[in-house]
Amino acid sequence: MLVKVAAGVILRNDSVFIALRQSNQHQGDLWEFPGGKCEPSEAVDAALVRELKEECGISVTEHSFFKTISHDYGDKQVELHFYKVTGFKDEPMGKEGQEVRWVTVSDLLYYEFPEANKVIVEALMAEVT
Ligand SMILES: Nc1nc2c([nH]c(=O)n2[C@@H]2O[C@H](COP(=O)(O)OP(=O)(O)OP(=O)(O)O)[C@@H](O)[C@H]2O)c(=O)[nH]1
Ligand SMILES: [Mg+2]
């Protein structure tokens, strides 16, 4: 099963907005960049805008493509399309009851992410050091 996903690295000043995946979700209890699966024939950036509205309550006004990561979890193959989100309306929150947090990019080191995210976290941290 190959799943195409759009995820947003929501940035403000030195910080990034992260969310804790619920225990019952795939890769549960790990931190993530909010986002979700693209619907059939939906453009990836349209999925990004839709998911960030649904999960975080923001309206994205400025985004740029960052990186695509393909990863095989064994039970699931994912193609993750990460975007930097640098402009948005309203304050992001956990609309689905998920725990959320603004953390400085250099503090990402202290959070546990799914395996596929390692490259993204390293790339973000490299930009600030
Ligand atoms: N949103 C998001 N998903 C990620 C990240 N890293 C990562 O491996 N994934 C994987 O990508 C897939 C995306 O799914 P999702 O669970 O967010 O999808 P969704 O919002 O449409 O949720 P749903 O299946 O509950 O409707 C999951 O298998 C998840 O484990 C990440 O940083 N953000
Ligand atoms: Mg999601």
UniProtKB/TrEMBL annotation:
- Where is 8-oxo-dGTP bound in this sequence? R21, H26, E32, F33, P34, G35, N117
Example GO biological process term? DNA repair
Entry-linked SUPFAM superfamilies: Nudix (SSF55811)
Q: Which residues form the Nudix hydrolase domain?
A: 2-126
Q: Is the keyword Protein transport in the record?
A: no
- Pfam families in the record: NUDIX_4
Q: Name one GO molecular function term.
A: 8-oxo-7,8-dihydroguanosine triphosphate pyrophosphatase activity
Enzymatic reactions: 8-oxo-dGTP + H2O = 8-oxo-dGMP + diphosphate + H(+); 8-oxo-GTP + H2O = 8-oxo-GMP + diphosphate + H(+)
Q: Where does Mg(2+) bind?
A: G35, E55
Which keywords does this Swiss-Prot/TrEMBL entry list? DNA damage, DNA repair, DNA replication, Hydrolase, Magnesium, Metal-binding, Mutator protein
EC assignment: the record states 3.6.1.55
Q: Which cofactor does it need?
A: Mg(2+)
NCBIfam families xref list: mutt (TIGR00586)
Instruction: Write out the similarity annotation.
Output: Belongs to the Nudix hydrolase family.
This one is known as 8-oxo-dGTP diphosphatase
Task: Name the species this protein comes from.
Answer: Marinomonas arctica
Q: Which gene encodes it?
A: mutT
